[in-house]
Write a structure and sequence with these properties.
Length: 125
């Protein structure tokens, strides 16, 4: 009989995807779902791992290549790249980009503001 996780051990939303991405980032090359399953903590079912990998692929966060009858997966971006993608996606979904960017900039720390200014200057060069 299969044990069910109770609420105290249940993963937070997105935590499992983050764990799978961490496995993909740490790998030297593309991994089969069974390889990912073996590297994850806990007792996840193979089908759960396949579902998470498929979702990551559908979201554009992982790519896959066919090898025989199965797929091998690897992360599309590193952690900073994925964070940048999420930020861009949020910004693209807002009709008033100016207000969103203005609000974002107004909440930056002095250090982050200086870093952003430097990055923008470097980008212009």
């Amino acid at each position: 009989m299969r044990r069910r996780r109770d609420e105290s051990t249940r993963r937070a939303r997105g935590e499992l995807e983050a764990e799978v991405l961490a496995v993909l980032w740490a790998a030297d090359g593309p991994l089969a779902p069974a390889d990912v399953q073996a590297r994850l903590s806990g007792d996840l079912a193979y089908t759960t791992v396949v579902t998470i990998l498929s979702r990551l692929h559908d979201k554009g966060m992982a790519s896959r290549e066919k090898l025989g009858r199965s797929f091998r997966y690897h992360a599309v971006d590193d952690e900073p790249g994925l964070a940048a993608r999420r930020m861009t996606k949020v910004l693209d979904g807002e009709p008033d980009r100016h207000s969103v960017l203005a609000r974002f900039v107004s909440t930056l720390s002095e250090t982050d503001e200086q870093l952003l200014r430097k990055l923008l200057r470097d980008h212009e060069s």
